[in-house]
């Protein structure tokens, strides 16, 4: 590991002021420290924001929930208001990582974790995300776990977070403190598709610090769930995941929110499926049409074609479960 | 002399070193800190084949704390050796990606690692070939397969028998490369002094490692000492010397100070061996009633260009079932890949996956219960050697397992048991593993204070070997277990074979019993009094092992699995796994159960998860960490149970025991694959059975 300096600022403003050349923010360190050990990132300075006074979870005047960026994943999952109002978020958090990691990982860091694509994580191999212009061996190599939607010639990586998939489904806002002041970034919208510059995962600019996530008031989210398909029951990244909320009235879908995980460079909001469902009967046939509407855009790679039927089946299952919920 | 009538063998004695381990007092290889210690960071090749043309060490040497950068251009010379894999830094040739090409030694680990990252080897890269194929032009028949079985074997006329069989199963199976991932990765601390070389290593055989290291450094074995009192798991990966330990010793020689070298888990995927991938074709010819007329099992597997490791994949097929016509073959191709090695029941594990899957396919084809099919093909004597079995209780295991598992009312139809979104199925498979015994030596000493010390260079890799040897010694001495101290894990102790091949306890235990018997006799002759200086007796079992009567000695077992397959996602989870084993006398039920349950867990892991993914363009295994290389963890093994049938087999060793370290894994993957077929109707012949094989 390369030598680096370490600082622990007192507040967000001074953290942003400290972020000079070669410095990065350190949250729970559950991903960044790994990447430093692997030589994937070699920051000259760590600005530790894990203990800023932003670990609060509080109700907003509009009936939503404000979650500080330093809140630990485990604490967020266990919060009574989260469990009651946004079960999809609690389930997503609990399906991610292990208990030990959830107790370290922060909400801000979780959103910014990097892809687990094997080529990205191995500095002896090319990767456009890690080293722009070096190529994407995953496209023609081992991409079993990689993207089927929104990928480009440059990159087929997926975003690894479970939490972010739920936040995209819920339409959360990310609060950011930057060199130019504070602003809000909506989700989806924080993460970006790879295009020809996969080195950038998000729309954040240098120095930007996530300070909080705001969950909107969303009554339909009380009927929501997260379902993750994975290669083992113990901690592992999603092969595919679905976050969904459904409001059914008189056998008709009044409203819905759907996002897919592990299918793209971003947590994928399934807008085509949502559009197909709103106003449709809450039947398996309608759910299937919605899934097909979304997956029409899928461009599976030679070795991950199974993700298309997997996404379809999983989405059908989640929607059917939600429709049957009392 | 205190004597007791209590028998310790067979009792569930707690581990004698349990407290040391759970309190952290037990020191493992990496935890030794000789004076003037330095730290090594190896550099691994980033090409799969070619030559090193130069080594720009300028930037690395400027890192504060760096003591030396060693590569083939400046490394101390090792003695010429056939062990090409161990001749580290002796040549510019690169034989596989990940091979060690240099090592940095520094005052701190951080400095060594930083410098290693700055080293710039210059390569002349050559085209490489890392893909195992059944039609590879360079396939050949090895002289022997591990350890010394003939590669091919044929009885009768299997082709004619297949052609005239009313029922034929002809199926190809594949198993991927798999890597041992013991809790404690490999590590060594090497130190030279006037007396020679001392190595603290995480090894399964202190004596054997000494024997491998000494000639490389041109020394007699007495000048090398290997110390390994505690080892955090092995499974075969630590069964023989790997390049890192030579690298540590060579670096320590070069810098004139002790060197510590820990192999990272990433590095392990190239330099500490792995289970070869296999391609297998099994053909079974049978009468309509299931009686086998022909068994043909052909195997293709790989080794590196540096060393021939030919796994004995089809060898168990030679003795498992009665069939008048039989052929088994092994073909090997030497590729530009890391050298494969031992991994828990090498050969038997992938081989029995194929055979026991094929037997299940035959049971379906004949409309027979799979247990009944096996009963109809039970041989009277070993079909391979023609010898009588010392004991063979496979059918007892199958029937006892069926009773405990609740097999009787099994509906054989595939794909019809659905509860909620889950498809349920059950499967069974047989296991076998040879009961080997190798020569060993031991000493037993009566101390003046009334206690006893037994010494043998055995290794306890987490199995409870030290505990069981204590029980064996106490019984042989007729002494209370509290008065018996067993010293192991040091090549300075009497020579002992590897903790591997499920033969450790049988081999060491024989020597311990003989040494204790000799000591008891000696004490009896001197009137039962321990002389002031103590009394000591020793034993060597080479003659006894050589002269043992001719029997086919094997342990047997049966695994039963229940799986739940998610109909939407294809996710397969093992809801119940049950094994019954016939492995001679069980010396300690507590440590034995751990071994069986551990073996079955590893088999479950093999069935559903483990796969080392090779990228042919780069030539290395891509998923080289535990986030990507999945092994079963707690949530994956909710209900794993092990039982045994007692066997009284007088033809084995003084304890009446068979090895138990490996048989637990052998049939597990097949039992699970058979259960997946029963659940879904889909026959998965390629491991691992991940959701992509089942999602539709």
From TrEMBL, chain A:
Membrane-spanning parts: none
Any one GO MF annotation of this record: xanthine dehydrogenase activity
Lineage: Bacteria, Bacillati, Actinomycetota, Actinomycetes, Streptosporangiales
Enzyme nomenclature, EC number: 1.17.1.4
PANTHER family: OXIDOREDUCTASE, XANTHINE DEHYDROGENASE SUBUNIT C-RELATED
Originating organism: Sphaerisporangium krabiense
InterPro entries referenced in this protein's UniProt entry, alphabetically: CO_DH_flav_C, CO_DH_flav_C_dom_sf, Diverse_Substr_Oxidored, FAD-bd_PCMH, FAD-bd_PCMH-like_sf, FAD-bd_PCMH_sub1, FAD-bd_PCMH_sub2, Mopterin_DH_FAD-bd
Key words, A-Z: Oxidoreductase
SUPFAM superfamilies xref list: CO dehydrogenase flavoprotein C-terminal domain-like, FAD-binding/transporter-associated domain-like
Pfam families: CO_deh_flav_C, FAD_binding_5
Domain FAD-binding PCMH-type residues, every copy: 1-220
Gene3D superfamilies (UniProt xref): 3.30.465.10, CO dehydrogenase flavoprotein, C-terminal domain, Uridine Diphospho-n-acetylenolpyruvylglucosamine Reductase, domain 2
Protein name (database record): Xanthine dehydrogenase YagS FAD-binding subunit
UniProtKB/TrEMBL annotation, chain B:
Keywords for this protein: Molybdenum, Oxidoreductase
GO MF annotation list: iron ion binding; xanthine dehydrogenase activity
Pfam families listed in its UniProt record: Ald_Xan_dh_C (PF01315), MoCoBD_1 (PF02738), MoCoBD_2 (PF20256)
Major enzyme class: oxidoreductase
Domain Aldehyde oxidase/xanthine dehydrogenase a/b hammerhead: 23-127
Enzyme Commission (EC) number: 1.17.1.4
InterPro entries, sorted: Ald_Oxase/Xan_DH_a/b (IPR000674), Ald_Oxase/Xan_DH_a/b_sf (IPR036856), Ald_Oxase/xanthine_DH-like (IPR016208), AldOxase/xan_DH_MoCoBD1 (IPR008274), AldOxase/xan_DH_MoCoBD2 (IPR046867), AldOxase/xan_DH_Mopterin-bd_sf (IPR037165)
Protein's recorded name: Xanthine dehydrogenase YagR molybdenum-binding subunit
Organism: Sphaerisporangium krabiense
Native organism taxonomy: Bacteria, Bacillati, Actinomycetota, Actinomycetes, Streptosporangiales
